[in-house]
Write a structure and sequence with these properties.
The chain is mainly alpha-helical and 976 residues long. It has 52 helices and 10 strands. The strands form 2 sheets. Strands 2-1-7-3-6-5-4 form a 7-stranded mixed β-sheet, with helices on both faces. Strand 5, helix 23 and strand 6 form a beta-alpha-beta unit. Helix 42 packs across helix 43. The longest helix is centred in the N-terminal third of the chain and has 26 residues.
């Protein structure tokens, strides 16, 4: 029997604490654990390996991995041997997990360039294993492990032929071509390759713990964005913070740091029409050469993949007549070109390993010359070396000259893009716009349809996310970015927005600062070693930048920092991690944070800002929390007095204060609430209490601060008692005939209480105590009792309790605006049409609502769902005869003639209405129900023996001149 431990090199590895794991595996050598580990090797090669080779390779690799785990825990995390041993059982469970073995096995593929450290980290957390120390670095382990396994293949006598087999596989392809076995031009295989490469939505860079999204199809979730054309690509125009751009769209203000010429360019850009990006792409005759520009995560690559998939999903008989999509990821193309695998784009598709499927270059040349292709160059910005980027542009330019009938699309990030050469080559430039509210809602709906099986949970989570976005301007701004919106949808499965938005911001910043480019295997500036300056370092620097910005003259409202101050902050931090030439590296860091990480933007005049104000607020809050929890340089008393105490009156600080409340322990939030409750907020319209309620809403577990929460609730309800000051005003106003506002004009204090304090108090209670079983009944009472609380309570019922029948009915009965009542009436019917009580209630609304619009809507719903109920026809006839509203009587007559044509009594009924309806004309534009009845009779009962006598009578005797003229005209037509 083989000594597996000796074969794996375990007996020679002195001090291996995790040796028992390998000893257990040696006993199970006959099992399939080794095969599972080596599945990363291409299938054809794996089939040629002997069982013994597989077990040797797997054992040696695991030994290396366990040694690296031990080294991390010992050297980097400073744990003793006893502490390290405590991880033995968990590590054994960890390496048995399928997702872990798949990643470790990829190290045996000689074409593998990096391993997925993020998935390893997520797997550890998913398996609920003993938490690893904060300094534990998965990225470092995967990089070292990959190197060690590749060295094993090179150096080990037993394993070397695994490497040789892989090399032979590559040589076989080239040999076949040299021997005359030419790569074919199989479009069916090419379709399969596109579906395999791009069919599933790529979520590798996101935290998808808790659910497998592997089968989520890109073409089913893709949302076509809008674009604006830009005739001059000026970074200053498109780099401003989102909040500045939003202000510019809404007003004509000129920003302080902008020149007049820059302002002119902005106006020209924003005057360009917005159109769907697919409309632009599909008009080849108008837009043959296109550059699509966008922010990170804006969907540039996804757009090109969707275009390729649209072709790949088409039936073969259609494919022949459609342009063949050729998607070239420029970072891959440049690597293959540098490795001398190809010299041009056609050779890339013909023979390079990065191509989706090999296509014969001679046949491809014919298709291109015929213009039968859509060629897409993705990621010009990911070719970092300026010289090489110029080479790529030259290649693209040469390509368009050689194949002038082919449509070409190039994508790039905006910042750092230099447009002139492609402008000279007649490329038109378009910038992807943020998703609008309709597109966001469409994405959310389809996401939940595709990722949830439980119908109730699907609707609940979908509505929760919609509420979360609607409730927070910060989240709504981020939701315009497809990547960040996808992140919200994933987070929403197990967490709630906006309460858990700090976790969203943390994940978003991690992806933008590090994971995004690491996942794409991008290495930028050699002075920025990713193993030395990782996303955590960047987050720490941005915390300190935001902290400094809040102390400036304009504070957080300014979102502005001078370049010198920015360099100082970054330099100081780099010194703490012992970086050589920290000032020079700080300048490189600023450029990376601007051009790659989408965090900072350059405003001109040596000033920078956060692209999203959201991240300024988040990092500022995090720095306060860091000082409070980690360095403990900020005490709870200082947090209350110097942070909350100084800023509770300043609305621009509220989001920071709320984020702080969401990131510290509930007991400390309780102390802050006590502090806020004690403040005298009357002159500030009680903003101290409303802020306290919002802080409480940030707390996930309120058990420790129940008493404080109860005291705050009492204080907020006491604000409603201030309505005694305006009860006399309300008594003066007749709710139906006079507007209460007319009686408040001269009393500012009463207006503030009526229009500001009371609605905010009700909203605070409804939002913060939404899960309290007493809140719903309290809101219903407020909605029914008085005008002062009614509309605010109705608004909250409408927002938060749309599934409660009584709440919907109250909204349908008491909302001020008829359109709102009509809307909620329809919601009642949609959700509760199976209840006979709903029919009775609808009849009541059809007869008692003060608006004809609502009455008619109620009648329409009755006919739509209860047409065959025995009581419906008599009810509609009663509405047609007796309703006080002319429009309702007319609508009832129209419905009767449409829905009850076969009623034997219909003619007689219409005959009576044509004579007896009490209509009296007061306006020329109003339609007479008597004429409506006549129209129905003429249309359906032309041959009835009483029709002509009725018309003659109405032509002579109807008191309404319009009806007489109508009857005379119709009589003349019928008597011809």
């Amino acid at each position: 029997m083989l000594d597996w431990l000796a074969m794996w090199g375990v007996t020679q590895a002195a001090g291996l604490i995790f040796k028992p794991i390998l000893e257990d595996l040696a006993k199970d050598a006959a099992k399939d654990w080794a095969k599972d580990l080596l599945k990363g090797i291409p299938g054809k090669i794996f089939q040629k390996l002997k069982k013994e080779d597989i077990e040797i390779a797997a054992g040696k690799a695991l030994k290396e991995f366990l040694q690296l785990m031990q080294q991390q825990l010992k050297v980097r995390c400073k744990l003793g041997e006893t502490e390290i041993k405590e991880y033995t059982t968990d590590i054994q469970k960890f390496i048995s997990d399928k997702s872990v073995t798949e990643i470790l096995g990829k190290g045996f593929d000689i074409n593998c360039e990096f391993l997925d450290a993020k998935t390893l980290e997520d797997s550890w957390n998913r398996l609920q294993l003993k938490p690893l120390p904060s300094k534990f670095n998965w990225q470092s382990i995967t990089e070292q492990y990959l190197t060690q396994v590749q060295e094993l293949l090179l150096d080990s006598t037993e394993l070397h032929h695994i490497l040789e087999l892989q090399k032979l596989s590559d040589i076989e392809i080239n040999t076949k071509e040299i021997a005359g076995v030419i790569v074919d031009f199989n479009l069916v295989k090419y379709q399969e390759g596109i579906r395999e490469r791009y069919g599933n939505l790529k979520l590798d860079s996101l935290d998808t713990s808790g659910y497998a999204y592997n089968e989520l199809k890109l073409w089913r979730i893709f949302t076509a964005q809008n674009v604006r054309e830009t005739h001059q690509v000026l970074p200053q125009v498109h780099e401003l913070p989102k909040e500045h751009l939003r202000r510019l769209r809404k007003s004509d203000q000129v920003e302080a740091v902008e020149l007049e010429e820059l302002e002119r360019h902005k106006r020209v850009y924003f005057e360009q029409p917005i159109r769907s990006v697919l409309d632009v792409v599909n008009k080849k005759q108008d837009y043959k050469y296109i550059v699509i520009l966008g922010d990170p995560g804006s969907g540039k690559s996804t757009l090109l993949q969707f275009l390729a998939l649209t072709w790949a999903e088409s039936p073969l008989d259609n494919v022949i007549s459609l342009p063949i999509p050729l998607l070239i990821e420029l970072r891959t193309y440049m690597r293959r070109r540098e490795d001398k695998e190809c010299n041009n784009f056609l050779e890339f598709f013909h023979q390079c390993s990065g191509a989706v499927h090999h296509l014969n270059q001679l046949e491809l040349d014919k298709q291109l010359k015929a213009g039968n292709a859509l060629v897409m160059f993705d990621g010009l910005d990911e070719v970092f070396d300026p010289g090489k980027r110029e080479d790529v542009i030259t290649d693209i330019h040469r390509f368009t000259n050689e194949y002038p009938d082919v449509q070409v699309i190039v994508t790039s990030r905006i910042i750092g893009y230099k447009p002139q050469r492609l402008l000279n080559a007649e490329f038109r430039h378009f910038i992807l716009q943020d998703l609008d509210s309709e597109q966001i809602q469409d994405f959310i709906y389809r996401w939940h349809e595709l990722t949830f099986t439980d119908a109730v949970d699907k609707v609940r989570k979908r509505e929760r996310l919609q509420r979360g976005i609607a409730a927070s301007k910060s989240i709504a701004e981020l939701a315009g970015n497809p990547l960040l919106l996808t992140m919200m949808a994933i987070l929403n499965r197990n967490q709630e927005l906006p309460r858990d938005r700090a976790e969203l911001y943390n994940q978003a910043s991690r992806v933008l600062l590090h994971q995004w480019d690491v996942e794409r295997a991008l290495i930028e500036d050699q002075r920025l070693d990713p193993k030395t300056i990782d996303y955590k370092d960047k987050q720490a620097m941005l915390r300190q930048v935001a902290y400094l910005m809040q102390t400036s003259d304009k504070g957080l409202a300014g979102n502005l920092i001078n370049e010198n101050d920015l360099v100082k902050v970054l330099t100081a931090y780099l010194k703490t991690i012992e970086f050589d030439k920290p000032r020079e590296v700080a300048k490189v860091m600023i450029n990376q944070l601007r051009t790659r990480n989408f965090m900072l933007c350059f405003l001109g005049a040596d000033y920078y800002a956060f692209v999203h104000r959201t991240f300024l607020e988040y990092f500022c809050a995090w720095e306060f929390v860091w000082q409070f929890k980690e360095t403990q340089t900020l005490t709870i008393d200082k947090l209350k007095d110097e942070v909350f105490g100084k800023h509770w009156q300043d609305e621009s600080w509220h989001e920071v204060l709320l984020l702080i409340a969401g990131m510290i322990e509930p007991k400390f939030v309780g102390e802050i609430l006590d502090y806020l409750i004690l403040q005298d907020g009357e002159e500030e319209n009680f903003v101290n209490l409303f802020l306290a309620a919002k802080c409480l809403a940030e707390v996930r577990n309120r058990t420790a601060i129940t008493l404080t929460a109860s005291q705050l609730l009492v204080k907020l309800k006491d604000l409603l008692n201030k309505d005694y000051q305006i009860k006399e005003v309300i008594d003066k106003a007749d709710y139906l005939d006079d507007d209460v506002e007319d009686y408040l004009d001269d009393d500012i204090e009463k207006r503030i209480i009526f229009y500001d304090v009371i609605p905010k108090a009700i909203s605070s209670i409804a939002t913060t105590w939404r899960d309290d079983p007493d809140t719903l009944s309290w809101l219903k009472t407020c909605a029914k009792e008085g005008y002062d609380t009614q509309q605010a309570a109705l608004q909250e019922l409408a927002k938060g309790w749309s599934h409660d029948l009584e709440a919907l009915k109250i909204c349908a009965e008491d909302m001020h605006h008829p359109d709102s009542r009509k809307s909620f009436l329809e919601k009642v019917v949609k959700g509760f049409q199976d209840s006979h009580e709903t029919l009775s209630w609808l009849k009541n609304r059809a007869q008692s609502d003060i608006s004809w619009l609502v009455r008619q809507a109620a009648m329409d719903e009755i006919i739509k769902y209860w047409k065959y109920d025995p009581g419906t026809l008599p009810f509609i006839k009663a509405q047609a005869k007796f309703d006080e509203w002319i429009n309702v009587r007319r609508a009832a007559l129209e419905q009767l003639s449409k829905e009850w044509k076969d009623d034997p009594d219909l003619f007689e009924f219409l005959h009576d209405c044509a004579i007896l309806d009490p209509f009296e004309r007061i306006a020329l534009s109003v339609s007479n129900p008597r004429q409506t009845a006549l129209e129905a009779i003429i249309k359906q009962f032309t041959q009835h023996d009483q029709t002509l006598p009725l018309l003659r009578d109405r032509a002579q005797n109807d008191p309404d001149e319009q009806v007489r003229e109508f009857a005379q005209k119709k009589l003349a037509q019928l008597e011809k």
